[in-house]
Every structure is written in structure tokens, then in C-alpha cells.
């Protein structure tokens, strides 16, 4: 890349890095809560001049995209994730290459990703309005709607950067978890009855109402959704805890060693976020295309098999749709899992270098980075594929089970919260309030 292009990349608007090497727990908690509150507030700011009648059809997709359709943050994390997907595909195909071992290479990669995010914010804002996904009311210029969408998309991008540098985890994960948690809370506990309905929106009050009204089918549906949600939570926590531990020793200190953990879900929730966001974007544009996109939608949406079985209206086509949906999720999760390992420094070479720089080595082998890389590759490559397959199957089954909110969203939220817990416990246990430490179980 030329120096002129580098100047553009290195001078894009960004959130300043903290001057301290390590931020305190209170400092990170403060910025995380500020951004979380701001996210919910922006979700309540309506798009001025937008037609509210077209918003309802996007409710399901908003959960995965970390968006609130009809608000200023209608784009959600869609443009940021789309930029990441495109960049990973280009890097994986060898069309563009970044040397992520150097500081300049990392800055260039981050700059290109941000530039792509800005491009997709503008593009998606225009597409949403141009194809009628978000229509302007009479007397309002569509340009005003586009401007508001771009502004909201840019705010989400900068908020994501604030979380990444000043808070816990990253903004993309936080916004997904916030959206899903809000959705679960409403769908589990809300006592509000929709117009024309006998039962409340919340599954728990609706379950008791159904039992009191002698409505076994409705009671079965609500009970199944609650059980599916709890089952997803327990299974994900169990799988998250699975790991392979590689014994390592300090070369200069005999008899002292540690175990280097490699998680079974090696790339964590990133592959599912990417494939779920990609599928959500495809569904979004298919919905905007109207009748022309309905054929695609039927194969990209998980059929509620459990609900259909309880109601007694399941058909063979529904099982076919479920299988296709699972295959798409699994194949996509594996593909993005492999790409993510290469672009995020999780590959065997990068891990071997980190281990060697820490003064560790594999017991019984000579101190050679190439030897360590080959040994690690025996674990990392299978874990990358098996983890991608497992998380894809978990996400697919969660969706098919009819859990509260999106099954994939619940899976992601549990994984995100579990990772935040691990990160906080590892980095900040000593500097947090004693009451908070007790709450964390430490």
C-alpha cells in the first residue's frame, strides 16, 4: 500500500488509547456502563420522518444485529461485522495481505477495517432507504433518513472502540448481549397482553394464565420455550469450560512448569457472530426485496420445530429447512473460525512465539520455536474446526428449539457474559471492591 493511502488509514478518527498500561476495574466498569446506557438511550431516539409501519418485520433481525429498527441505531453492528467479514475473506483468499506481526501492519489492518466500516455504514444507510426498508413519510426527504442512519452507525462504531480500549471486552459483543438480555427479560416476565390476545407476552405469566384457562397447547409452548432457554444456558456454560491443557516448563527453572490452556471453543463466539450477522444481513435485504426474497428467507430462518411438534402441524419440509439451516450455520462457523485464527494471532506460529517470549518451552523438546509450532498445530487445527462445528450446531439447535428470543442470540449472550466473567476474574480480582469480589465468587 502506498504512503498516501497509509496517511489516510493512520489519520482516520479514532478513540485515544488510555495512557495507563492497565486500567483499574472501576475505570473499565465506568466506561462500560456509560456506553451501555448510551446504547439503550440511542435505541429510544426515533428516526425523524421515518414510516413506523415497516419496522415490525425487522424485530427478529434487530436482536442479532445489535440494532433497534426505527431508531437512530437501526444499522446496529451490521456495517462493522460486514466489514470484518469482507476483510477476512479477502485476507483468507490472499487478495490482500497484512503483516500482523509488526505494529505498522496491525495499524494498517485496523485502518482498513475502519475504512470499510465507514463505507458499509454509508452503503447500508442508502440501501435501507433506497429499497424501502426504512421509508420516509410524506414531506420528509429520504436524505434526512440516510443522514440519521449514518450518524447512528458512526456512533455505534466509536462506542465499540471506546469499549475495546477503555472497557470490558468489545462493543459488538456488549451490544448483542444487551439486546438479547432485554429481549429475554421482556419475553420471560412481561405481563402486557397484546391486542386481541388472551395471554401475556412473558412466557412465565403466560404459562400460569394458560394453566388457569385450561389451555394445554399454549402452556406446553411456553414451558418448552423456558426449558429450551435454560438448556441452552447450561450446555453453553459446560462447553465453555472444556479445554485442552498443554504442559510447559520454564527452561531456566527446573521442576517448575505451568499448563497452557487451549479452549475447546478455540475461537469462542466470533464465528457465530460473523455467520449470524451475515445471514441476518441476507435476510434483511431479502425482506426488503419483497416477494422476490421469500424463497431465500424460508431456508435462512430456523423453523420452530418444537413449537410445530407441540401444535401437531410439523411437515417434512420443516425438517429439511432445519437441516439446511444447521448446515449453513456449521459450515459458516467453521470457515470464519479458520479465518479468525489467521487474522487474530491465534494460529500456531503466533502462539509459539508468545510462549517462547514468556520463557516457556515444551518439556522433552529442544527450545526451538518451529518445534513448538508443530506441536501446537496438532491441537489448534483440530480445535479450530471442532470448535466451529460445535458452536454452529449449538446455535442451530438453540434456534430450532424455540428458546426465548433468538436461540443464537442466547448462545452468544451466555458466551459473552461467561468470557467477561473470566476476563474480569483474571485481570481485576485484586483491585475490585470486596463485595464485588464476593459476588464474583472469589
Percent of sequence in beta strands = under 5%
Strand-pairing-aware structural class: mainly alpha
The total strand number stands at 3
Distance between the termini: 49 Å
Helical element count?
A: 17
Gyration radius, to the nearest Å? 23 Å
Per CATH, the class of the largest domain reads: Mainly Alpha
Coarse shape: globular
What's the main sheet like? 3 strands, antiparallel
Low-pLDDT sequence parts:
none
CATH fold category name of the largest domain? Preprotein translocase SecY subunit
Written account of the structure:
By secondary structure, the protein is mainly alpha-helical. It folds into 2 domains: 1-167, Preprotein translocase SecY subunit (Orthogonal Bundle); 196-442, Preprotein translocase SecY subunit. The chain has 17 helices and 3 strands. Strands 2-1-3 form a 3-stranded antiparallel β-sheet. A hairpin with a 6-residue loop joins strand 1 (243-250) and strand 2 (257-263). The radius of gyration is 23 Å and the shape is globular. The chain starts with a helix and ends with a helix.
Amino acid at each position: 500500500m502506498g504512503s498516501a493511502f497509509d496517511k489516510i488509514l493512520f489519520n482516520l478518527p479514532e478513540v485515544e488509547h488510555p495512557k495507563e498500561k492497565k486500567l483499574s476495574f472501576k475505570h473499565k466498569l465506568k466506561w462500560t456502563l456509560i456506553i451501555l446506557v448510551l446504547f439503550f438511550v440511542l435505541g429510544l431516539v426515533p428516526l425523524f420522518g421515518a414510516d413506523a409501519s415497516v419496522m415490525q418485520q425487522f424485530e427478529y433481525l434487530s436482536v442479532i444485529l445489535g440494532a433497534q429498527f426505527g431508531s437512530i441505531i437501526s444499522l446496529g453492528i451490521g456495517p462493522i461485522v460486514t466489514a470484518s467479514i469482507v476483510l477476512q475473506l479477502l485476507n483468507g483468499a490472499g487478495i490482500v495481505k497484512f503483516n500482523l506481526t509488526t505494529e505498522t501492519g496491525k495499524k494498517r489492518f485496523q485502518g482498513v477495517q475502519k475504512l470499510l466500516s465507514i463505507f458499509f455504514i454509508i452503503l447500508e444507510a442508502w440501501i435501507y432507504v433506497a429499497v424501502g426498508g426504512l421509508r420516509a413519510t410524506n414531506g420528509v426527504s429520504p436524505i434526512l433518513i440516510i443522514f440519521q442512519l449514518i450518524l447512528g452507525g458512526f456512533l455505534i462504531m466509536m462506542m465499540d472502540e471506546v469499549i475495546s480500549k477503555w472497557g470490558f471486552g468489545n462493543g459488538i459483543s456488549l451490544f448483542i448481549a444487551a439486546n438479547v438480555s432485554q429481549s429475554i427479560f421482556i419475553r420471560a416476565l412481561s405481563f402486557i397482553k397484546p391486542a386481541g390476545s388472551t395471554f401475556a407476552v412473558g412466557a412465565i405469566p403466560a404459562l400460569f394464565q394458560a394453566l388457569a384457562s385450561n389451555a394445554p397447547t399454549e402452556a406446553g409452548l411456553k414451558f418448552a420455550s423456558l426449558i429450551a432457554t435454560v438448556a441452552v444456558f447450561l450446555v453453553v456454560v459446560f462447553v465453555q469450560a472444556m479445554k485442552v491443557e498443554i504442559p510447559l516448563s520454564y527452561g531456566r527453572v527446573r521442576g517448575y512448569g505451568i499448563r497452557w490452556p487451549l479452549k475447546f471453543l478455540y475461537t469462542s463466539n466470533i464465528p457465530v457472530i460473523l455467520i449470524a450477522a451475515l445471514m441476518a444481513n441476507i435476510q434483511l435485504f431479502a425482506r426488503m426485496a419483497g416477494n422476490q426474497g421469500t424463497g431465500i428467507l424460508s431456508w435462512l430462518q430456523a423453523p420452530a420445530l418444537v413449537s410445530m411438534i407441540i401444535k401437531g402441524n410439523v411437515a417434512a419440509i420443516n425438517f429439511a429447512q432445519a437441516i439446511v439451516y444447521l448446515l449453513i450455520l456449521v459450515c459458516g462457523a467453521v470457515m470464519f473460525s479458520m479465518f479468525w485464527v489467521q487474522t487474530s494471532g491465534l494460529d500456531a506460529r503466533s502462539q509459539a512465539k508468545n510462549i517462547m517470549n514468556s520463557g516457556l518451552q515444551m518439556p522433552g523438546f529442544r527450545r526451538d520455536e518451529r518445534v513448538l509450532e508443530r506441536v501446537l498445530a496438532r491441537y489448534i487445527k483440530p480445535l479450530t474446526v471442532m470448535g466451529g462445528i460445535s458452536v454452529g450446531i449449538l446455535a442451530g439447535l438453540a434456534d430450532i428449539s424455540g428458546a426465548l428470543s433468538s436461540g443464537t442470540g442466547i448462545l452468544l449472550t451466555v458466551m459473552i457474559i461467561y468470557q467477561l466473567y473470566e476476563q474480569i476474574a483474571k485481570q481485576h480480582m485484586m483491585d475490585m471492591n470486596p463485595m464485588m469480589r464476593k459476588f464474583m465468587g472469589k
